[in-house]
Specification:
About 50% of the residues lie in helices and about 5% in strands. It contains 17 helices and 5 strands. A hairpin with a 2-residue loop joins β2 and β3. It is of the alpha/beta class.
Protein backbone atom coordinates (compact mmCIF):
# COMPACT_ATOMS: atom_id res chain seq x y z
CA UNK A 1 0.00 0.00 0.00
CA UNK A 2 2.80 2.40 0.76
CA UNK A 3 3.91 2.47 -2.89
CA UNK A 4 0.76 3.99 -4.34
CA UNK A 5 -0.04 6.42 -1.53
CA UNK A 6 1.14 10.00 -2.17
CA UNK A 7 4.35 10.89 -0.36
CA UNK A 8 2.59 13.41 1.90
CA UNK A 9 0.04 10.78 2.96
CA UNK A 10 2.81 8.37 3.91
CA UNK A 11 4.45 11.13 5.95
CA UNK A 12 1.21 12.00 7.77
CA UNK A 13 0.50 8.33 8.55
CA UNK A 14 4.04 7.95 9.86
CA UNK A 15 3.58 10.89 12.23
CA UNK A 16 0.25 9.44 13.38
CA UNK A 17 1.91 6.08 14.12
CA UNK A 18 4.66 7.73 16.14
CA UNK A 19 2.06 9.76 18.04
CA UNK A 20 0.12 6.62 18.95
CA UNK A 21 3.30 5.00 20.20
CA UNK A 22 4.03 8.01 22.41
CA UNK A 23 0.65 7.66 24.14
CA UNK A 24 1.43 4.06 25.04
CA UNK A 25 4.95 4.76 26.34
CA UNK A 26 6.07 8.32 27.08
CA UNK A 27 9.23 9.15 25.20
CA UNK A 28 11.51 10.36 27.93
CA UNK A 29 14.51 8.56 29.30
CA UNK A 30 15.91 6.14 26.75
CA UNK A 31 15.59 2.51 27.71
CA UNK A 32 13.73 0.79 30.55
CA UNK A 33 13.26 2.31 33.96
CA UNK A 34 16.11 1.43 36.28
CA UNK A 35 13.96 1.02 39.41
CA UNK A 36 10.38 -0.18 38.77
CA UNK A 37 9.61 0.07 42.50
CA UNK A 38 10.07 3.86 42.49
CA UNK A 39 7.37 6.29 41.42
CA UNK A 40 7.92 8.03 38.08
CA UNK A 41 8.33 11.81 38.18
CA UNK A 42 8.13 13.34 34.72
CA UNK A 43 9.96 16.52 33.78
CA UNK A 44 8.27 18.15 30.79
CA UNK A 45 10.36 20.44 28.60
CA UNK A 46 8.33 23.37 27.31
CA UNK A 47 10.27 25.23 24.63
CA UNK A 48 12.14 28.40 25.73
CA UNK A 49 11.15 28.23 29.41
CA UNK A 50 14.49 27.32 31.02
CA UNK A 51 14.01 23.58 30.55
CA UNK A 52 17.54 23.02 29.21
CA UNK A 53 19.11 24.47 32.37
CA UNK A 54 16.73 22.54 34.63
CA UNK A 55 17.34 19.21 32.91
CA UNK A 56 21.08 19.81 32.85
CA UNK A 57 21.06 20.19 36.65
CA UNK A 58 18.88 17.10 37.14
CA UNK A 59 20.61 14.92 34.56
CA UNK A 60 22.61 12.85 37.05
CA UNK A 61 19.85 12.73 39.69
CA UNK A 62 18.10 9.52 38.71
CA UNK A 63 16.42 8.22 41.90
CA UNK A 64 15.49 10.84 44.51
CA UNK A 65 13.11 10.59 47.48
CA UNK A 66 11.42 7.50 46.08
CA UNK A 67 10.93 9.06 42.63
CA UNK A 68 12.64 8.22 39.36
CA UNK A 69 13.16 11.37 37.32
CA UNK A 70 12.17 10.98 33.67
CA UNK A 71 13.55 13.87 31.61
CA UNK A 72 11.52 14.43 28.45
CA UNK A 73 12.03 16.41 25.27
CA UNK A 74 9.78 18.90 23.52
CA UNK A 75 7.73 16.12 21.92
CA UNK A 76 6.16 14.82 25.15
CA UNK A 77 2.95 16.54 26.28
CA UNK A 78 0.60 16.22 29.23
CA UNK A 79 -1.55 13.66 27.40
CA UNK A 80 1.51 11.39 27.10
CA UNK A 81 1.87 11.23 30.91
CA UNK A 82 -0.31 8.49 32.46
CA UNK A 83 -3.06 9.68 34.78
CA UNK A 84 -1.92 9.69 38.41
CA UNK A 85 1.82 10.11 37.69
CA UNK A 86 3.46 13.29 38.94
CA UNK A 87 5.10 15.88 36.72
CA UNK A 88 7.30 18.97 36.82
CA UNK A 89 7.33 21.71 34.21
CA UNK A 90 8.51 25.27 33.73
CA UNK A 91 6.76 28.29 32.24
CA UNK A 92 7.71 31.75 31.06
CA UNK A 93 5.97 35.03 30.37
CA UNK A 94 4.72 34.62 26.76
CA UNK A 95 6.22 37.93 25.59
CA UNK A 96 9.62 37.10 27.07
CA UNK A 97 9.33 33.64 25.52
CA UNK A 98 8.60 35.26 22.14
CA UNK A 99 11.80 37.33 22.30
CA UNK A 100 13.92 34.34 23.34
CA UNK A 101 12.40 32.12 20.64
CA UNK A 102 12.88 34.72 17.90
CA UNK A 103 16.54 35.30 18.78
CA UNK A 104 17.14 31.58 19.25
CA UNK A 105 15.90 30.67 15.79
CA UNK A 106 17.58 33.77 14.30
CA UNK A 107 20.94 32.23 15.30
CA UNK A 108 19.75 28.68 14.51
CA UNK A 109 19.94 27.85 18.24
CA UNK A 110 23.71 28.20 18.30
CA UNK A 111 26.11 27.91 20.06
CA UNK A 112 24.75 24.99 22.11
CA UNK A 113 22.92 23.43 19.16
CA UNK A 114 22.72 23.97 15.43
CA UNK A 115 19.31 23.48 13.84
CA UNK A 116 19.35 25.04 10.35
CA UNK A 117 16.43 27.21 9.27
CA UNK A 118 13.44 25.61 7.69
CA UNK A 119 12.09 27.19 4.51
CA UNK A 120 9.44 29.20 6.40
CA UNK A 121 12.12 30.57 8.72
CA UNK A 122 14.39 31.58 5.86
CA UNK A 123 11.56 33.66 4.41
CA UNK A 124 10.64 35.17 7.79
CA UNK A 125 14.16 36.20 8.81
CA UNK A 126 14.78 37.74 5.40
CA UNK A 127 11.94 40.17 6.21
CA UNK A 128 12.13 40.63 10.01
CA UNK A 129 15.48 41.18 11.73
CA UNK A 130 14.34 41.91 15.31
CA UNK A 131 11.53 40.70 17.57
CA UNK A 132 9.95 44.16 17.60
CA UNK A 133 9.92 44.31 13.78
CA UNK A 134 7.79 41.19 13.68
CA UNK A 135 5.56 42.11 16.62
CA UNK A 136 4.83 45.60 15.25
CA UNK A 137 4.05 44.27 11.77
CA UNK A 138 1.13 42.23 13.14
CA UNK A 139 -0.97 45.41 13.08
CA UNK A 140 0.54 47.01 10.00
CA UNK A 141 -1.81 48.95 7.72
CA UNK A 142 0.00 47.34 4.80
CA UNK A 143 -1.99 44.16 4.22
CA UNK A 144 0.97 42.38 2.58
CA UNK A 145 3.31 43.08 5.50
CA UNK A 146 0.64 42.08 8.01
CA UNK A 147 0.16 38.74 6.23
CA UNK A 148 3.93 38.21 6.16
CA UNK A 149 4.05 38.77 9.90
CA UNK A 150 1.24 36.29 10.52
CA UNK A 151 2.98 33.68 8.35
CA UNK A 152 6.21 34.27 10.28
CA UNK A 153 4.42 33.80 13.61
CA UNK A 154 3.14 30.44 12.34
CA UNK A 155 6.41 29.42 10.71
CA UNK A 156 9.20 30.26 13.19
CA UNK A 157 9.96 27.51 15.68
CA UNK A 158 8.65 28.02 19.25
CA UNK A 159 6.73 31.13 18.15
CA UNK A 160 4.23 28.78 16.54
CA UNK A 161 3.71 26.59 19.64
CA UNK A 162 1.45 27.84 22.39
CA UNK A 163 1.15 26.30 25.84
CA UNK A 164 -2.00 24.53 24.67
CA UNK A 165 0.23 22.25 22.60
CA UNK A 166 1.56 20.73 25.83
CA UNK A 167 -1.39 21.12 28.20
CA UNK A 168 -4.54 21.14 26.06
CA UNK A 169 -7.54 23.29 26.93
CA UNK A 170 -8.54 24.49 30.39
CA UNK A 171 -10.69 21.46 31.16
CA UNK A 172 -7.91 18.98 30.32
CA UNK A 173 -5.42 20.85 32.49
CA UNK A 174 -7.77 21.19 35.47
CA UNK A 175 -8.34 17.44 35.44
CA UNK A 176 -4.59 16.91 35.96
CA UNK A 177 -4.02 19.48 38.72
CA UNK A 178 -3.70 16.69 41.37
CA UNK A 179 -0.78 15.28 39.33
CA UNK A 180 1.26 18.50 39.48
CA UNK A 181 4.41 18.12 41.57
CA UNK A 182 6.19 21.40 40.85
CA UNK A 183 5.76 24.46 38.62
CA UNK A 184 8.88 26.54 37.93
CA UNK A 185 9.06 29.96 36.28
CA UNK A 186 11.93 31.17 34.15
CA UNK A 187 12.00 34.65 35.69
CA UNK A 188 12.72 33.18 39.13
CA UNK A 189 14.29 29.88 38.16
CA UNK A 190 17.15 30.06 40.68
CA UNK A 191 14.77 30.48 43.62
CA UNK A 192 12.38 27.84 42.32
CA UNK A 193 15.23 25.37 41.87
CA UNK A 194 16.24 25.84 45.51
CA UNK A 195 12.67 25.03 46.54
CA UNK A 196 12.61 22.01 44.23
CA UNK A 197 15.84 20.74 45.80
CA UNK A 198 14.15 20.80 49.21
CA UNK A 199 11.16 18.86 47.92
CA UNK A 200 13.34 16.21 46.31
CA UNK A 201 16.00 16.10 49.02
CA UNK A 202 18.79 16.97 46.60
CA UNK A 203 22.28 17.97 47.67
CA UNK A 204 22.59 21.64 48.73
CA UNK A 205 25.64 22.14 46.48
CA UNK A 206 23.66 21.25 43.36
CA UNK A 207 23.02 24.34 41.21
CA UNK A 208 21.73 25.33 37.81
CA UNK A 209 24.44 25.68 35.14
CA UNK A 210 26.16 29.08 35.22
CA UNK A 211 27.67 28.73 31.75
CA UNK A 212 25.68 30.65 29.13
CA UNK A 213 26.11 27.96 26.47
CA UNK A 214 25.22 25.05 28.74
CA UNK A 215 22.10 26.87 29.95
CA UNK A 216 21.21 27.72 26.33
CA UNK A 217 20.81 31.44 27.05
CA UNK A 218 20.74 34.13 24.39
CA UNK A 219 24.25 35.60 23.91
CA UNK A 220 24.75 39.37 24.21
CA UNK A 221 24.19 41.51 21.14
CA UNK A 222 20.64 40.41 20.25
CA UNK A 223 17.73 42.83 20.44
CA UNK A 224 15.36 42.19 23.34
CA UNK A 225 13.24 45.35 23.25
CA UNK A 226 9.53 45.61 22.47
CA UNK A 227 7.72 48.84 21.70
CA UNK A 228 4.23 49.65 22.92
CA UNK A 229 2.61 48.64 19.60
CA UNK A 230 4.49 45.35 19.41
CA UNK A 231 3.74 44.54 23.03
CA UNK A 232 0.01 45.20 22.57
CA UNK A 233 -0.04 43.02 19.43
CA UNK A 234 1.64 40.12 21.23
CA UNK A 235 -0.70 40.40 24.19
CA UNK A 236 -3.59 39.86 21.80
CA UNK A 237 -1.79 37.08 19.90
CA UNK A 238 -0.83 35.18 23.07
CA UNK A 239 -3.92 36.05 25.16
CA UNK A 240 -4.66 32.41 26.03
CA UNK A 241 -1.03 31.73 26.98
CA UNK A 242 -1.01 34.80 29.24
CA UNK A 243 -4.17 33.58 30.99
CA UNK A 244 -2.63 30.12 31.41
CA UNK A 245 0.54 31.53 33.00
CA UNK A 246 -1.56 33.61 35.40
CA UNK A 247 -3.49 30.49 36.38
CA UNK A 248 -0.27 28.57 37.03
CA UNK A 249 1.14 31.45 39.09
CA UNK A 250 -1.93 31.14 41.31
CA UNK A 251 -1.47 27.38 41.56
CA UNK A 252 2.29 27.35 42.17
CA UNK A 253 2.36 28.47 45.85
CA UNK A 254 0.05 25.58 46.76
CA UNK A 255 1.53 22.96 44.44
CA UNK A 256 5.19 23.69 45.19
CA UNK A 257 4.85 23.49 48.99
CA UNK A 258 2.36 20.62 49.11
CA UNK A 259 4.83 18.32 50.87
CA UNK A 260 6.94 20.85 52.74
CA UNK A 261 6.18 21.57 56.37
CA UNK A 262 6.33 25.37 56.19
CA UNK A 263 3.83 27.03 53.91
CA UNK A 264 4.58 30.57 52.68
CA UNK A 265 3.02 33.56 54.41
CA UNK A 266 -0.58 34.13 53.47
CA UNK A 267 -1.19 30.49 52.62
CA UNK A 268 -2.00 29.05 56.05
CA UNK A 269 -5.57 27.81 56.34
CA UNK A 270 -6.43 28.93 52.80
CA UNK A 271 -3.76 26.61 51.41
CA UNK A 272 -5.55 23.63 52.93
CA UNK A 273 -8.87 24.45 51.29
CA UNK A 274 -9.66 22.72 48.01
CA UNK A 275 -8.40 24.87 45.17
CA UNK A 276 -10.66 25.65 42.24
CA UNK A 277 -8.49 26.99 39.42
CA UNK A 278 -9.87 29.90 37.45
CA UNK A 279 -11.36 29.09 34.07
CA UNK A 280 -9.37 29.91 30.97
CA UNK A 281 -10.92 32.13 28.33
CA UNK A 282 -11.39 29.18 26.00
CA UNK A 283 -13.89 27.34 28.18
CA UNK A 284 -15.64 29.97 30.28
CA UNK A 285 -18.72 29.76 28.08
CA UNK A 286 -19.17 26.05 28.81
CA UNK A 287 -19.38 26.83 32.58
CA UNK A 288 -22.58 28.85 32.09
CA UNK A 289 -24.52 25.91 30.67
CA UNK A 290 -25.72 23.04 32.89
CA UNK A 291 -24.05 19.72 32.22
CA UNK A 292 -25.73 16.95 30.27
CA UNK A 293 -26.09 14.92 33.47
CA UNK A 294 -27.90 17.79 35.19
CA UNK A 295 -30.31 18.11 32.24
CA UNK A 296 -31.09 14.36 32.12
CA UNK A 297 -34.84 13.60 32.73
CA UNK A 298 -34.02 11.10 35.47
CA UNK A 299 -32.03 13.75 37.35
CA UNK A 300 -34.86 16.27 37.03
CA UNK A 301 -37.43 13.72 38.29
CA UNK A 302 -35.24 12.71 41.23
CA UNK A 303 -34.82 16.32 42.33
CA UNK A 304 -38.62 16.87 42.08
CA UNK A 305 -39.30 13.82 44.29
CA UNK A 306 -36.82 15.04 46.90
CA UNK A 307 -38.44 18.47 46.99
CA UNK A 308 -41.90 16.89 47.38
CA UNK A 309 -40.71 14.63 50.20
CA UNK A 310 -39.14 17.53 52.08
CA UNK A 311 -42.34 19.55 51.66
CA UNK A 312 -44.51 16.74 53.09
CA UNK A 313 -42.15 16.23 56.01
CA UNK A 314 -42.14 19.96 56.76
CA UNK A 315 -45.86 20.71 56.59
CA UNK A 316 -47.53 17.37 57.49
CA UNK A 317 -45.39 14.95 59.48
CA UNK A 318 -43.58 17.42 61.72
CA UNK A 319 -46.70 19.31 62.93
CA UNK A 320 -48.29 16.00 63.92
CA UNK A 321 -45.20 14.87 65.74
CA UNK A 322 -44.65 18.20 67.47
CA UNK A 323 -48.26 19.36 67.84
CA UNK A 324 -49.88 21.07 70.84
CA UNK A 325 -51.63 17.88 72.09
CA UNK A 326 -50.94 17.22 75.80
CA UNK A 327 -48.50 14.51 76.56
CA UNK A 328 -50.20 11.17 77.33
CA UNK A 329 -48.02 8.41 78.75
CA UNK A 330 -50.49 5.68 77.81
CA UNK A 331 -49.52 3.31 74.96
CA UNK A 332 -50.75 4.22 71.51
CA UNK A 333 -53.08 1.20 71.29
CA UNK A 334 -54.98 2.47 74.36
CA UNK A 335 -55.26 5.93 72.82
CA UNK A 336 -56.61 4.38 69.63
CA UNK A 337 -59.65 2.95 71.52
CA UNK A 338 -60.28 5.86 73.84
Amino acid sequence: MRYWLPFRSVRVLSRFHRRQQSRELPRGWRGDRSDPSSRPLHVLHIGKTGGTALKSALLKQRIVSGYELLLHGHDVTLTDIPQGEKLIFGLRDPLSRFISAFNGRLREDRPRYHYPWREEEKIAFAIFQTPDDLATALSSRDRKRRKEAERAMRGIGHLNTSYQRWFGDGRAFRARVPDLFFIAFQDRLDDDFELLKRRLGLRPELHLPADETEAHRTPPGFSDELGDVGRANLERWYAEDIAFVELCRELAPRVNVAQIGDAPAGFGRSARRPYRPRLLATDRASRTRPSARARHPASVLARALIVALVTVMTFVALPEALGDRPYDPRPSRVLAHS
